[in-house]
Amino acid sequence: MQYRLLILLCLVNFLSPIRGQSIWEYRSNLSPQILQISSLNNFKILALANNNQLFISTDSCRTWSLFTSKIVRKFCLDKMGNIFILTNKIEMSSDQGETWHSWSTELPSTVTPTSFCAGYNGTLFYSTYEDGLLMSTNFGESWASTSLKYDSPELVIELNNYLFAFILNGSIFHSMNRGETWKIIKRAIGYTGVKNLIADSSGKLYISCLPSITDSITIKLSEDFGETWLGIASIPDANLIFSLDQNVVFVSGNRSDIIWKLWKENFDWKKVIFNEGLPEKLILDGFLGSDTKLYLLFENGEIFRSIYPLNNN
Q: Is the model's pTM score more than 0.90?
């Protein structure tokens, strides 16, 4: 009888792989320190270090090699797989860095951009504190000013031919003419500062924001292109936000609550990844890889990856 109990206990422990195990694994600590990290495709990952060198990993952040000998100040990717880098000019590669092409030796501004991102069909956005948002519709060959003159537009996203941007004071703007003119969304959505903005695969907009005196809701949803907003959850310090299939994932920047997932059927939030096993450091950046695992970059340069894919229910 005692032997049967012992065998049963061993079997229970064997069939409970998550119990007692960390759900995070250490990947690497690239030196010099990483400032920007992004998933290219097919498990290839680019990382920009603080010495202006661009590195690539082909084994999910385990090892790194120099991607280009160019001095890179910023980089971004578009949906077609093109890579754009900002050196002393803007250069583009359509073959994952094998060859590079540039159209002009002059940058759209003499000021280092606060954001540099790619949109659809060759559209690039370049924003600075002094110039506001600049736009190119021909892969960076020529640039034009836009009506978005506010300081530091942090992000530009595309949704059904509309463009959305937000700035650090919490205002959200949208453009209905491919970025030529911008209009502020003046809606009483009850936030004091937007921290992130995404559009999911079904066309809904989500923002994470700071709580206000009269509104503690920090996660809001719009299903009508920003006209109206619905408060759906209060998640502390949700700095990073990602869209994963039919779910939205939020990451807390201070590690108080690491990962939350939204099930869209009933807005049921579930904490699915915990902070056990992570360093006591601030989260600077992150992304969902091709393996649907979550990668987090910490202020000390360490990179951790979730062991289990986030779409494993």
A: no
